């Protein structure tokens, strides 16, 4: 059974940093493309970042380029999102997603609140 569990969210002041983790089970993160998606209150989900199955290609939505970094630890079967220079517009529930055989799986999210 595919399971994704995001963690690492919390309350942080503007300019601060957080590292989100997405622990996967039921599949190997090294074999699939992985994505982070966020949903702010009252807004549609927004794709944030992508890492390909080979781990050599990463992409980011424009608003987080230069501030966020996606990475993967195959030994821990976990994907990370390092978030620096956070601002209030980054406030959202963050989810990790994996498309497998044409179906998208999304785990429980983790709430990130950026506020002074």
Give me the secondary-structure topology:
Blueprint: E1 3-7, E2 10-12, E3 18-25, E4 34-39, E5 46-51, E6 58-60, E7 68-73, E8 78-83, E9 92-100, E10 103-106, E11 110-114
Parallel strand pairs: 2-11
Antiparallel strand pairs: 1-3, 3-8, 4-5, 4-9, 5-6, 7-8, 9-10, 9-11
Task: Determine the N-to-C terminus distance.
Answer: 40 Å
The dominant shape is: globular
Helix count? 0
Largest sheet: 7 strands, mixed
Please report the total strand number as a whole number: 11
What is the residue-mean pLDDT, rounded to a whole number? Answer: 96
The helicity comes to under 10%
Can you offer a commentary on this structure?
The chain has strands at 3-7, 10-12, 18-25, 34-39, 46-51, 58-60, 68-73, 78-83, 92-100, 103-106, 110-114. By secondary structure, it is mainly β. The strands form two sheets. Strands 2, 4, 5, 6, 9, 10 and 11 form a seven-stranded mixed beta sheet that branches. It has a four-stranded antiparallel beta sheet with strand order 1-3-8-7, with no helix packed on it. It is globular and about 40 Å long.
């Amino acid at each position: 059974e595919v399971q994704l569990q995001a963690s690492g969210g919390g309350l942080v002041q503007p300019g601060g940093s957080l590292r989100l983790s997405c622990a996967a089970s039921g599949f190997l993160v090294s074999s699939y493309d992985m994505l982070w998606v966020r949903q702010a209150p009252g807004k549609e989900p927004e794709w944030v970042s992508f890492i390909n199955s080979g781990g050599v290609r990463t992409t980011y939505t424009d608003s987080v380029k230069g501030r966020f970094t996606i990475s993967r630890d195959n030994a821990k079967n976990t994907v990370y999102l390092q978030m620096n220079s956070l601002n209030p517009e980054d406030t959202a529930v963050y989810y990790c997603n994996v498309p497998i055989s044409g179906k998208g799986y999304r785990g429980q999210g983790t709430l990130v609140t950026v506020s002074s």
